[in-house]
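G., before I forget:
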Amino acid sequence: MPVVDTDYSAYVTITYAIALTALAGAGLWSALRLWGARRRLDEAEKSDPSTTGPSMTGPPMTGPSTTDSSRQEQSD
Amino acid sequence: MAVMSFFANPHRFMAASRWPAWGFTLLGAGLIALGVWKGLIAPEDHQQDERARMMFVHVPAMWLSLFAYAFMVGASFISFVWRHSIADVAAKSAAPLGAVFTAVGLMTGSIWGYTTWGTWWEWGDARLVSVLILFFIYLGYLAVWQAMETPQKAARAAAILCLVGAVNLPIIHFSVEWFAVLHQKSTFLTTDDRATAEFKIPMYISALGYLALFGGLTLMNMRAEIMRIRTDMILQRRQAAD
């Protein structure tokens, strides 16, 4: 008669560890990606004298603007 | 439609999404922590004893894996029909998170399956196999974005793949009804829902936490992607000027 292990606490702990590690990893990856993108954009905007449009990382635009993103990008 | 037009402008989107991105992420982290605590102190189930606690991380992960894909399908449809640039960014940003939720759901489900069914995996189970296919669709979607020559072609191809892959969603949902499977039928959010408040509360708190985290991280990834596109435009313009 095989001995049946009915103590499942280790399995429960591993399950929670997997989920929390994955979610924390996704959060950390997203935050690092955002900071990296912001840093590279700031560097590019600083070193580009022709950048006259509103900064993506700066304050929000005020006043009327187009709803067509392609035209908006061209006007930058 | 008005909201869609409003957020077609990247500047407006960036202005509106700054605080919600962090707010939803923190809210999600807090709710998940509360859900974990409530789940770990929940009483043992009369049939599944402490194994039922695995459900508080497995089930919300599976719900979000489907929700993330449905979100991508909606965004891809808007991108495909209206060429909405932010919709492309939204679908692309949600994909890695959907893949993470699916991977978590598969791994935690496999552990639960081993303790309950005595096997880590069952190839004859339509629910398990259809979720694995969903995971591969997520990977394929991400690979398409990397493989195409131009972002425009990549967006088009990825949107088509996403829309075609949507056929898998009802298969996953109804697989436990249509096929003879090991996987149990839906317990929560059904007309036959017999779970008690001691199990429902941690489950719904965790699910709301996963949802808020998905919303916050998707907004963060969208912001990063828009900044990357903007940086590329500046660098390309500088190269053209040189």
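Residues 59-76 of chain A have pLDDT under 50 and may be disordered. The helical segments of chain A are 9-46, 69-75.

More on Monday.
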